[in-house]
Amino acid sequence: LQSFRLEEKTVGENKFGGISCLKAVLSSDKSTLKVNCLIVFPDKSTHGKDVLEIVAGENLRQKLAVRDGSKVEISVKT
Questions:
Q1: Is 65 helix (H, G, I), strand (E, B) or coil?
Q2: Please, what's the b/e burial string for 2-23 (b: 16 or more CB within 10 A of its CB; e: otherwise)?
Q3: DSSP secondary structure letter of residue 60
Q4: Does the N terminus or the C terminus of the chain have fewer Cβ atoms within 10 A?
Q5: Dihedral (Cα; 16, 40, 59, 50), 10-degree rounding
Q6: Tens of pLDDT along 8-63?
Q7: Are 54 and 38 in contact (CB under 8 A)?
Q8: Can you tell me the distance from the alpha carbon of 47 to that of 10, in angstroms, rounded to the nearest whole number?
Q9: In sequence order, which ranges of the chain are alpha helices (DSSP H)?
């Protein structure tokens, strides 16, 4: 798997925790588009273990025409 890690970092007075990341592609049955994204596993999170955190360089809700509760497909890059 194409994974990488970003270590904890301080910028000015702001402290950012470390995260582990996996490169992935996200798609939806409501759109033919596929979007490159990262699955992130932050060292500290307010989410439970049942929530998968995904980030992308574009608005996933708009690009893939999804909302809370929509089904999506995630393919992890190998």
A1: coil
A2: eeeeeeeeeeeeeeeeebebbb
A3: H
A4: C
A5: -110
A6: 999 999 999 999 999 999 999 888 889 999 999 999 889 888 889 999 999 999 99
A7: yes
A8: 22
A9: 60-64
